[in-house]
Amino acid sequence: xxxxxxxxxxxxxxxxxxHPQSLTLRPRRSKxxxxxxxxxxxxxxxxxxxAWIAFAVALRLAMRWLIVALPLLWPIAxxxxxxxxxxxxxxxxxFPRLSLVLGYRSLLILLGLMLGGKL
Length: 119
What we know:
Layout: H1 20-23, H2 31-36, H3 42-69, H4 74-94, H5 99-118
Helix pairs in contact: 3-4, 3-5, 4-5
């Protein structure tokens, strides 16, 4: 049995590629995580809150129109009203670090649905 000679030279620790992007490792974010990240500045957060509330108000008004136009579709409207809470619960279990953001946005959506019901 022959043995291979063992090299005494140190193993190179140089990166294989010298491309600048290969030297930095960024954690990959899923599309959900990129979409859920809250804005950093106050003005952007205020715009974000207004947008979520306005969307929920519009959704509630559309659901009311749907129920008035076609009363047989009330189960679909009820499911649409439950989707924000169900999706927040699912995403909170998938991404626990974002559960505070999800709770905040769920609160904004519920506030918008309530305001839309009062209009």
